[in-house]
Amino acid sequence: MENVKVFSIIIALFSVLSVESVGLKDLKTCNFGAVYNFGDSNSDTGGGSAAFWPAGKPCGETFFGRPVGRGCDGRLIIDFIAEHLGLPHLSPYLDSIGTSFRYGANFAIGGSTIRPQNESMSLNGVSPFSLDIQIVQFDQFKDRSGYFYNRSYPRDRHNLPRPEDFSKALYIFDIGQNDIAAGLRKKNDSAFHASVPDIVDQLAKAVQNLYEHGARTFWVHNTGPIGCLPVSLHYHDIKPEELDEQGCLKAQNAYSMEFNRQLKARVIKLREKLPHAALTYVDIYAAKYELIGNAKKQGFVEAANICCGFHEDEIQVYCGHKQNINGTEIYAGSCENLSDFISWDGVHYTEAANRWVAHRITNGSFSDPPLPIKHACHKP
After folding, report:
1. Which of 181, 216, 252, 255 could covalently link to 227 via disulfide, CB atoms 3.0 to 4.6 Å apart?
2. What CATH number did the domain enclosing 183 receive?
3. Residue 244: how many CB atoms within 10 A of its CB?
4. What's the DSSP call for residue 312?
């Protein structure tokens, strides 16, 4: 715990000093007319529900009052980012009902990976909408929306993105966790580590593709501490020596850290390769690990506790599901005090936890360069 305190202080001091060194006071706020997001369930605002099957109750109960395609009780980090920028929540690209793309679109789909996997949604929850497919969808979206915008009457354009906003938009990447999960599932350390350069390379190619089509501002999240997810801690026979000081699985977190190390190095190289781009690397891992390490001090219960689901005496019933146990039907509903929990369903975070993380990453405290998101279009 003491190490986490020291780490937090260092991060805060580094942020303040670095922000001052780049002259933040002299930078104008970026005018992001739109946000385009690529990712997995951590930022899926309804694409998975539109493509496969809808997220049911009790998802969405905190903020929206009903299921809205998010694997959460309320808002995700991407929702808080949109609000922070003064923009509406992003409509999923695949959702055809009641959508507006004037201020951007969300291509994230739950279960998506950077690297296409030879697996399926029905087998193990892996989405066919890998990052390369999401980029193809964006390219088509940009071309088709521009076609219809230029051929529509002004009164009919209100749900279409303005062509000039594409170059001024913020492009967010929040993907990679499922690539790591796939590596852990296959239980082959050497194969996973050999695959990381290709995984990172494919994300870099996605960034370059967008750059070549006019994108200039990128906000790239690394992946969180997968070894701290309660789903990992509840479903394994764990020995004490396998855990770190925060009660997380060291071996699983090592996968995340290796991916993050190579991702950061590639972002730095991309800055040289794409001279007109402003690329921000966001340390989601550090932000989430700090929250987990300081859970009680931040007003949360133990980080390993799961709000939605039934997990007792080796009986596991997932969030929103029902199961007959010894003649008794068990419904895996949500907890009473949702805002006290970090984990929503063992894999995804609650709205309260997402708000905590979003507040800290949008101010630049966990970014390289350490600029607030409203200044991310600038190159220090």
Report:
1. 252
2. 3.40.50.1110
3. 15
4. E
